[in-house]
Amino acid sequence: MIADRGAPLFDSGNTRDYNHATDSNYKKLRAEADALYDKRHKLSQQLQLAYKLGDGAKAHELSEKLKKILEQAEAKNRQAAEYVFRENNTDSAEDEIDLHGLYNSKYKLSNGYQIPVAGFGVYTVPEGETFELVYEALVQGYRHIDTAYFYKNEEETARAIHQFLKDNAHVKREDIWYTTKLMNTTNGYENTVKIVEETAAKVKKYIDYVDLYLIHSPKSDRETRLGTWKALQEYVGNPSNKTLNIHSIGVSNYGIKHLEELLNWDGLLVKPVINQLELHPWSPQLKLREYLVKHHILVEAYSPLTQGVKLNDPELLQLEHTYRIPKAEILLKWSYLQGFIVLAKTAKKERIAQNLNVLPKESNTQDALDVSSHLGKVDLDINILDALNKPDSHEICTWGGEDSTLYEDPK
Ligand SMILES: NC(=O)c1ccc[n+]([C@@H]2O[C@H](COP(=O)([O-])OP(=O)(O)OC[C@H]3O[C@@H](n4cnc5c(N)ncnc54)[C@H](OP(=O)(O)O)[C@@H]3O)[C@@H](O)[C@H]2O)c1
């Protein structure tokens, strides 16, 4: 099946409701785009065959044809997206900037804050190395860093941001996004207050406020989870009786039942804006993502490179061989094209730029709606998506292989 590349990007990247985009103009444009993608799919099979047979001339001819068809398909897709955008857009022009699929793109959260789409994760980055690595990530262009109490580098991360801001006066604190998470084994009201206070002591001197604080995992029980949320929401909005100002709060590894529990809770004052999940082609979490879109909760993809576990998967290696794109880039590209906020980690300085450069640095066009073509730095995206679109599955590479979204309370 040909991937529908327009809808997921817009739906998950922006909290607009496109459901009523069912009129005939929109449908016609999308059908025309789909027909072109179908045509392209067939041509790409021929191209693969030409590569296999070593027929360079034929491969060249086919790849030129493919390029043209992709351009036509994307133009149709763009017109369809533009049509829907105009129908639905009630926001200011500022939002249009956010639709660029560039490395410095931002997605708008349901509370109005804007989060950079490219995130740099620091899980397993040792103490003593985090400062330098985060500083380098900021130099390379990352504006979003993901840490956690558990990673033991909340403070170093904050210190690197502070130093970078000091050295680069044109970059403001509000340009950089700092996420941290609670200790994953200490949910509950009192524990949460304790951990947040510890975070405050470590980071406030450097970054003043925390952009996003997440519950790391639902593991505990209903009362404990809701106690955690009760404590977290007391820190939102800079209350004068609290030591830390947290702009947004969210969850991680939450399944539908945990979200239902929270969203239906009568003590809910601040809604979760994000669910951070293990997401990659072997764990696409389709049902859960559908639920999140419906509830305007954005999706952050952690372990988009599967912590390296699937980097030698035969299908992935075949794609790398066919398209001559490094496998890590293929996985990151897949993730961005799903519309996720992507958190990638590397402890190797030279890989920072490589991972970030999956998103282009400059736009060739002024068209803010041209998301798909900006995201596709190299051609043949649609085939990569197709090849990696798998049925819903939960092949978890973290947490000892356990899918925390399926966590059941102990009886
Ligand atoms: N909420 C949660 O429960 C949770 C769980 C896990 C992770 N996270 C967050 O998500 C972030 C990313 O996930 P992750 O750290 O688990 O794993 P990941 O980003 O999927 O994978 C990191 C692994 O990929 C390798 N790698 C990175 N870039 C590469 C490249 N260009 N080519 C080849 N290999 C490459 C890294 O090796 P090198 O370091 O040697 O480059 C490392 O072994 C974490 O740092 C953390 O912030 C959250």
UniProtKB/TrEMBL annotation:
Keyword Zinc-finger belongs to the record: no
Coiled coil: 26-83
CDD domains: AKR_AKR1-5-like
Keywords in alphabetical order: Coiled coil, Oxidoreductase
Span of domain DUF1771: 25-90
GO MF: oxidoreductase activity, acting on the CH-OH group of donors, NAD or NADP as acceptor
Pfam annotation, one family: Aldo_ket_red
PANTHER family attached to this UniProt entry: 2,5-DIKETO-D-GLUCONIC ACID REDUCTASE (PTHR43827), ALDO_KETO REDUCTASE FAMILY PROTEIN (PTHR43827:SF13)
Protein's recorded name: DUF1771 domain-containing protein
